[in-house]
Design goal:
Blueprint lengths: L18 H9 L2 H25 L16 H17 L4 H18 L1 H17 L21 H23 L1
Pfam family, one: DUF212
Keywords: Membrane, Transmembrane, Transmembrane helix
Protein name: Phosphatidic acid phosphatase type 2/haloperoxidase domain-containing protein
Length: 172
């Protein structure tokens, strides 16, 4: 049974492998790099979109959730497809990554989207409370938690493009 694909860089199991060879192996891990690049691009798009729409720089967009495109969808799609491109789409690694991606994307536009909408309603209720009410000075809840289906699809497309380009680069 073959443990590593031709594009993997197996490391020695003993403790003599240097930290530079471990880093070298990580840098050449196409699925990992694809996922990190897809996440970074998605967050940068959100950052610049906020500036374009609101004419203000919001550094929170570089790490925050919610918005267009879904960085969660981009990340897990890039990971799953890069695994598929590297190791084949019939293996258990791709099946696991695909299932993981499906759960994350469902959660993004299902549970988290509705949690954000509930936060909007709760914030409005607290805002309308009389000043003397004990909850009137409650800190507002974050409302931008989830994604619309379009934001999830946009993230998935970004993840697909990132994984496809990365797999071409890594095979070259």
């Amino acid at each position: 049974m073959r443990v590593f694909s031709s594009s993997s860089f197996p490391m020695e199991a003993d403790s003599s492998s240097s930290s530079s060879s471990k880093f070298f192996a990580i840098v050449h891990n196409c699925p990992l790099i694809s996922a990190l690049v897809a996440f970074s691009i998605a967050q940068l798009i959100k950052f610049f979109t906020t500036w374009y729409k609101e004419r203000r720089w919001d550094p929170k967009q570089l790490i925050g959730s919610g918005g267009m495109p879904s960085s969660h969808s981009a990340t897990v799609t890039a990971l799953a497809l890069a695994i598929g491109f590297q190791d084949g789409f019939g293996g258990s690694a791709f099946a696991t990554a695909f299932t993981f991606a499906s759960v994350v994307m469902y959660d993004a536009f299902g549970v988290r989207l509705h949690a954000g909408r509930q936060a909007e309603v709760l914030n409005q209720i607290v805002y309308e409370l009389p000043v003397e009410h004990p909850l009137a000075d409650t800190r507002p809840l974050r409302e931008l938690l989830g994604h619309t289906p379009l934001q999830v699809v946009a993230g998935a497309i970004l993840g697909f493009v990132t994984a496809a380009i990365a797999s071409i680069i890594y095979k070259a």
